[in-house]
Automatic annotation (TrEMBL):
<dbReference type="InterPro" id="IPR050314">
    <property type="entry name" value="Glycosyl_Hydrlase_18"/>
</dbReference>
<dbReference type="GO" id="GO:0048471">
    <property type="term" value="C:perinuclear region of cytoplasm"/>
</dbReference>
<dbReference type="InterPro" id="IPR029070">
    <property type="entry name" value="Chitinase_insertion_sf"/>
</dbReference>
<keyword id="KW-0430">Lectin</keyword>
<comment type="function">
    <text>Carbohydrate-binding lectin with a preference for chitin. Has no chitinase activity. May play a role in tissue remodeling and in the capacity of cells to respond to and cope with changes in their environment. Plays a role in T-helper cell type 2 (Th2) inflammatory response and IL-13-induced inflammation, regulating allergen sensitization, inflammatory cell apoptosis, dendritic cell accumulation and M2 macrophage differentiation. Facilitates invasion of pathogenic enteric bacteria into colonic mucosa and lymphoid organs.</text>
</comment>
<dbReference type="InterPro" id="IPR001223">
    <property type="entry name" value="Glyco_hydro18_cat"/>
</dbReference>
<dbReference type="GO" id="GO:0006032">
    <property type="term" value="P:chitin catabolic process"/>
</dbReference>
<dbReference type="GO" id="GO:0008061">
    <property type="term" value="F:chitin binding"/>
</dbReference>
<dbReference type="GO" id="GO:0005975">
    <property type="term" value="P:carbohydrate metabolic process"/>
</dbReference>
<keyword id="KW-0325">Glycoprotein</keyword>
<dbReference type="InterPro" id="IPR011583">
    <property type="entry name" value="Chitinase_II/V-like_cat"/>
</dbReference>
<keyword id="KW-0395">Inflammatory response</keyword>
<keyword id="KW-1015">Disulfide bond</keyword>
<dbReference type="GO" id="GO:0006915">
    <property type="term" value="P:apoptotic process"/>
</dbReference>
<comment type="subunit">
    <text>Monomer.</text>
</comment>
<protein>
    <recommendedName>
        <fullName>Chitinase-3-like protein 1</fullName>
    </recommendedName>
</protein>
<dbReference type="Pfam" id="PF00704">
    <property type="entry name" value="Glyco_hydro_18"/>
</dbReference>
């Protein structure tokens, strides 16, 4: 029986905590006499989850108390940190200024404190858009130049992997994305064989919208090459919609009034759709936002689906209309009326003509229980710099949302 529990270690087959967890669950009924050993192993190795935390390079430019610097970050807060976003010029990853160079040095200091922390570099994002990737994929030579540049950059700056946030490929681009990911995966494997270091990780930030999923991704192919996906399961509703009515940023489940395509705009549907299309559940890391989407109400109606005249007022720190960081939401909640949506399992708040749908400690705990029930790979936070990282604005201690997610996950990958 004990031989069944033996795991061979070599450079080609690394111990995978999810596989170990599944193996032990299978072995338990087979070897009941070893149930104590199994429980002990589970406690030691854990059915470990990823806690993937994005942080943005523009958050350091915000005014206090929203100015976020990595020096103040707990290196044990997350299992994975993703720096967003790196710059590309002439199909090569570049350092665009002195601040960025300093940031990379700080990243390394976090790993000195916690050698097991995985730090990835993300390329892409909303501003970079789809056009930013077109020069990279226009020819095999440009792709090769990019891939070689990525490996050199990641190794030189002591990163553990790459996150591709192509937002978003169209139907014509989805083959380009598949090829790019495949070329990166092949090159990472070749680099691993030649080097003495661990293999570089390869992940992707992906859409949670059904139409985008259908158009943008060859999921079964991506599943072969990606270590995991970071599902952007938020921005389901916002001030860009027509007709403009209030809606929650990241509802866990569909609302009672959702009909037709509206029933797709929730976390549960998006997660299920990705899995049904071929992405293994253990490779799905579910996004949880530390911000809300806001609206200016057009009438006395305040429920979900109430008419809105435009985006909500900009926050005092993030200064973006229709958008509030959690540390701004905490201030907004003083004197506001809070309603918890029983169907969607998330809260919204109203004060005057301002309406904001957001996540709080209770809703993120519910979301984590949901992802654990589905045996997903873990939770992703967008982003740690919008949580109350100082602990001064929400009176819930530093990083109240991230800490709630971490507590609920239990054992993190190490």
């Amino acid at each position: 029986h004990l031989s069944l529990l033996r795991v061979e270690h070599d450079r080609e087959t690394e111990l995978n905590s999810e596989n170990l967890c599944i193996s032990l669950q299978v072995l338990l009924p087979i070897c009941p006499s070893f149930s104590g050993l199994v429980v002990l192993l589970l406690l030691q190795e854990g059915c470990a989850y990823k806690l993937v935390c994005y942080f943005t390079n523009w958050s350091q430019d915000r005014q206090e108390p929203g100015k976020f610097t990595l020096e103040n970050t707990d290196p044990f807060l997350c299992s994975h940190l993703i720096y967003s976003f790196a710059s590309i010029s002439n199909n090569k990853v570049i350092i665009k200024d002195k601040n960025e160079a300093k940031l990379y040095q700080t990243i390394n200091s976090l790993k000195t404190k916690n050698p097991k922390l995985k730090i990835l570099l993300s390329i892409g994002g909303y501003l970079f858009g789809s056009k930013g990737f077109h020069p990279v994929v226009e020819s095999s030579s440009s792709t090769l130049k990019f891939v070689n540049s990525v490996i050199l950059f990641l190794r030189n700056h002591n990163f553990d992997g790459l996150d591709i946030s192509w937002i978003y490929p169209n139907v014509k681009d989805n083959t380009h994305l598949t090829v790019l990911i495949h070329k990166l995966a092949e090159a990472f494997q070749q680099d691993f064989v030649k080097s003495t270091k661990e293999r570089l990780l390869l992940t992707a930030g992906v859409s949670a919208g059904r139409q985008m999923i259908d158009n943008s991704y060859q999921i079964k192919e991506l599943a072969k090459d990606l270590d995991f996906i970071n599902l952007l399961s938020f921005d389901f509703h916002g001030s860009w919609e027509k007709p403009l009515v209030t809606g929650h940023n990241s509802p866990l489940r569909k609302g009672q009034l959702d009909r037709g395509t509206s029933s797709y705009y929730n976390v549960e549907y998006a997660v299920g759709y990705w899995i049904n299309k071929g992405m293994p559940a253990e490779k799905v890391v579910m996004g949880i936002p530390t911000y809300g989407r806001s609206f200016t109400l057009a009438s006395a109606e305040t429920a979900v689906g109430a008419p809105a005249s435009g985006p909500g007022a900009a926050g005092p720190i993030t200064k973006s209309s229709g958008f509030l960081a959690y540390y701004e939401i905490c201030q907004f909640l003083q004197g506001a009326k809070i309603t918890r949506l029983q169907d969607q399992q998330v809260p919204y708040a109203v004060k005057g003509n301002q309406w904001v749908g957001y996540d709080d400690v209770e809703s993120v705990e519910t979301k984590v229980q949901f992802l654990k029930n589905l045996n997903l790979g873990g939770a992703m936070i967008w982003s740690i710099d919008m949580d109350d990282f100082t602990g001064k604005l929400c009176s819930q201690g530093p990083y109240p949302l991230v800490q709630a997610v971490k507590r609920s996950l239990g054992s993190l990958e190490r």
